[in-house]
Amino acid sequence: MQRYSDYVPIYSDDSKFDSHVGSAVVFPDFIVAETLHSFCSVYTSELYAIYLGLLKISSINFKKAIVYTDSRSGINALRSAKHNNHPLVMKCFDIHHTLKNTKITYCWIPGYGGIPGNENADKAAKNSNATRETFVHLIDVLLAVEFSQHRI
Description:
By secondary structure, the protein is of the alpha/beta class. Helices cover about 40% and strands about 25% of the residues. It contains five helices and five strands. The protein is globular and about 45 Å long. It starts with 7 loop residues before the first strand and ends with a helix. GO terms for molecular function: nucleic acid binding; RNA-DNA hybrid ribonuclease activity.
């Protein structure tokens, strides 16, 4: 972490329990948290948290930012973004590559590892409360429909 001391630290996380799905991103001075549709998978909500972070980075003039996440699958998806057709991966890839004057690094951190920024992101995702649900990926809807058909 010392190597990135001149980077703006950004922590992303998600939460899914019962019928609540939330994504959050924690910056040094503010937090962005949104509620997603209950159909959304953990994978989608983790990617959405990273996407929220990149959106905010694009609206603020950071020179260097490091996005910490406990989602290995999210980092792996972003590394192979050219070969991944998930809409959020493609959106993250597009935003990342439009930020020509900002160096962005992704770093995996262990979930529940006692890292304050990650714990704040986890809490914000759990407590996200929106009047409308913001996002649901079609694959998540199709999986929910398939699951409900098997329950009948």
